[in-house]
Fold this sequence. Notes:
alpha+beta; Thiol Ester Dehydrase, Chain A; about 35% strand; globular; about 20% helix
Amino acid sequence: MKAEDAAIPDRDRPPLGYFEGREHRFPIRVFYEDTDFSGVVYYANYLRFLERARSSFFRLAGIGHAELLERDPALAFVIRKINLDYKSSAKIDDVLSVVTTYDVFKGARLWVTQRIERGGEIILTADSEAACIDLNGRPRRAPTEMIDKLKPYLLTS
């Protein structure tokens, strides 16, 4: 946590979701801005929901994107591949849960499995491969302390 964040009362902090074993669960309510003219979630907005959940998983595990950028060399994560399987549509006012698992870390690559649920029904599944890079776009091995923070949640270490 950044020093300036310590002054923010807990009640004013955005929710980060919670862990259930290896799974991170991140609740989302569908707002008007998330939908198309028919009240159905616009297909590209599912990518936003997935990204918020992946980033919240990192934060809750003690990994901040800002801290990665402050390293020497500065590091970031990019999505190298993603495969989505839309099973059903979410609609305005739906309460969704994005369930994320970080599965395997190997070198600069991190494999992630996600699903979006509505009331226990799976409406989307996603498999992605993220890559740790420097700001020149070159792959970089993730920092040891980051891998250590994620180890309890990985399928293999």
